[in-house]
Input
Amino acid sequence: MSLAADVRHTSKLKHPWVLQNLPTYRPVARKLMMLTSHEDVPLSKVQEVLRTDAAFTADVLRLANSPLIGLRAPVTSVLHAVMVLGLERMKGLATTLALRAFLTTGVPTEALKACWRHNLATAVICEKLARFLQIEPDLCYTAGLLHDIGRLALLRASPDQYEHIFSIDPDGGFNLLEIEKSLFEIDHCEAGRVILEQWEFPREMRELVARHHHEPTADSSNLARIVYAGWQIADLLGFSALNRPIAGKIEAIASVLPPTARQKLLEEFDSLAEEIAFKINAIECSLV
Output
């Protein structure tokens, strides 16, 4: 075994058992992600990458033409999709497909489906909050989508053990992360960081996923504030990964956002659940 191969082998063995044999991040999706890190990438290069995986590209085009995006005219080709949507949005669609692999390559339990929908709901919410703060919505969509990838991994690896968490009284000193560590040697936040490191995501995204349960401080980025608020809003609206109602008040959740964004969220909160459900349905119908 070569030195490089030995290092990779040793690194893999250090991971908890629940993070073994996870779905791989498809090469075409990784190449697409790498392209987004460069400015002025020729469209022909993007088209060349997407053409290496016809099935993946077909799924991307279906999502591009779904109500999730809401374009007025249909996207007819890969090149057209890149021109209309941009690289960052294409990466978001690619990541959506990568997370869906957690369902399609394992046993699709109700808990796993609930976690998948929670991630989708958080992505849609984060995208909306980004517009309130005038920052890149596609980046926020991807961050919201990935925030609970660690929980998808735990659920996929051991659904029966994770079901134990559902039976615990949340009012009896319930600490989700501590319970996960006792069952799996790792909590879902750290598991998410490990997965994104394996998938070669940027450090900023890995740290964001690892710390999404940490309340933002004065020094926190707007992206961290959006994700922290986003997953809690998803829970509050009934899109909980634990598949049960989560108590809370929107005013308290919104308090981590800047004043203007907070006000806009409160104004549009009543219609948010319907918008989320519509977009989740659009994604799921497109990928049947």
In short: The first helix runs from residue 3 to 14. The chain has one domain: 3-23+105-286. Confidence is low (pLDDT under 50) at residues 1-13. The chain has 17 helices and no strands.
